Amino acid sequence: MTTGARTVSLTNGKLMVSGQCVLSDVHDNVSLTPVVSNDDVLCDGAFIGVKSDHKGSLRVFPVGKLLGLRFMSLYRFKMWWMTQWMGVCGCEIPFETQFLLVEVRNSLCLDNARTGSDGIDKQEMYIVFLPLLEGDFRAVLQGNEQNEMVICLESGDPAVDTFDGNHLVFTASGSNPFDVVTFAVKTVEKYQKTFCHLERKKIPDMINWFGWCTWDAFYTDVTEEGLKLGLESFKKGGIAPKFLIIDDGWQSVAMDPTGIESKAEDTANFADRLVDIKENHKFRKHPKEGHVEKELGCGLQRIIAEIKEQYGLKYVYVWHAITGYWGGVKPNSPAMESYEANLVYPMSSAGVEVNGVCNVLESIMMNGVGLVKPEKAYDFYNDLHSYLASTGVDGVKVDAQTILETLGKGYGGRVNLARKYHEALEASIARNFSDNDIISCMSHNTDGLYSEKKTAIMRASDDFFPRDPASHTIHVASVAYNSTFVGEFMQPDWDMFHSQHPMAEYHGAARAVGGCAIYVSDKPECHDFNLLKKLSLPDGSILRAKLPGRPTRDCLFSDPARDKKSLLKIWNLNSFSGVIGVFNCQGAGWCRVTKKPLIHEEHVETLTGSITAKDVDYLPRVADDGWSGDTMVYSHRGGK
């Protein structure tokens, strides 16, 4: 029996793509529902489902064997973040895989040359697997010892135990990997109608300007004095940040008397909870008189007005967690009582447990989260954001978003809870901030990605860690590979960095080709202005590339962090040209045994490679109609 679309089919127990077997020994209970594109795109696809008794809050369904085909997976190595993993067989698919791209030698194309969107004959096909949300359930992929690709389906609430099972994974194929991913996400958008593709979202203007974030400069010790010292320091060097993120440290928080403190030198106390939506005492002290402002709200309002006027800031954002603070809100605080919060203890999913529970999640699990009643979430966000807007704040960075997946018990499950919160959050942003001013952070789960219709900027990877020498090459590789997927939903934000750091040029070059915001977290008087002036124009604007930066096609399935031979090439487009950044990311990687970044090669060898105009995948899009294919290459380092 054969079912399927033009190139994707299920035939005699095999999932076939253009005549090539991708999965063998496909189980009898696996179904395929074809979807054929009417667009002028050489892609088509199908939904993968399973037939079962449709019962259970956590179910695992083997699909079929993946053998001898190169793949790139994006999986959550922490609950908050994804990174890449490469392999060639099913047993190598990590737990919590949310994106799987497979390279297939296309036997049909070898006989009948098929042309891709860039005019080049293709001998490869690419097939993407996107595990989806279906009803109140979320699917992810993983492998087993039999080399099978496995669907793991869960609701996050034992009481939510009935599912349909017909649309658990969407798979699509085509000759251009980037077109395939775009087609797949847009097709899922069309059928599910629960989220929007990036092309239909409004991107905030702040992304086009150079910025400064307070986090690594002060951590939670940020103050009014620190803000002004930092901005004055930039001004003296001839650099004018146009957007500012006041990160964690401005809010009014406290720990329960019985709470277990969890705070390191460069972190918050994850046991703290929000006690008031207004700023804390540090931002209510007048620096000249040293006393607390009589009116609670005038501190932040005065500070923002002064720094905008004195330093020419266009946008000021502030940080908050999606639950208010790391430990949520304090239920018995007078300012929080109207939100009817309950103390909820997180339960992480099985895949997250296998991949490793980080210290942040451990602390939150010990102390619990003061969770605003979902029906009150809009009231909470609107009260918070309307107050911030009244002080001159232009937008928010909303952190720790994936914690919602652990709080679904008793609230209809993880998907139901996430959708209620994201709907409330986006409604409040739309009402209070005119330019869709929100940055999504610590948000790498599909519960959110497939539920957000407006949010347009997302942090693309784990943090820039200035003190961890193992983290820097890992960071650049992760943001590039993750952007292959998350860049279809939101504009990836490749995070801040320090301009005066041993790896500053490395990070700066990545941001220059990333198509992302460019901002630093320098301490006052600690700047490399020569570097910053390469990234920021005199008026504070940046020359931002047009697309999310992604690995070139020949890098998609190599391992630039571990294989000791591959360079990472990142491509992008400008208005009239292409751009490629080449990075040596070898020597360090996320260790799945120790659950931390690990340097595995102390002395990284110099690598050689090649670049061609064809590496810029969509270069014909910016060429004149009569373009012959001739190109000129300019080397930034070489100067010619």
TrEMBL record:
It comes from the Eukaryota. Keywords: Carbohydrate metabolism, Glycosyltransferase, Transferase. The keyword Metal-binding does not apply. Its EC number is 2.4.1.82. InterPro entries: Aldolase_TIM, GH, Glycosyl_hydrolases_36. This is galactinol--sucrose galactosyltransferase. SUPFAM superfamilies: (Trans)glycosidases (SSF51445). It catalyses: alpha-D-galactosyl-(1->3)-1D-myo-inositol + sucrose = raffinose + myo-inositol. It holds the Pfam family Raffinose_syn. GO terms for molecular function: galactinol-sucrose galactosyltransferase activity. Belongs to the glycosyl hydrolases 36 family.
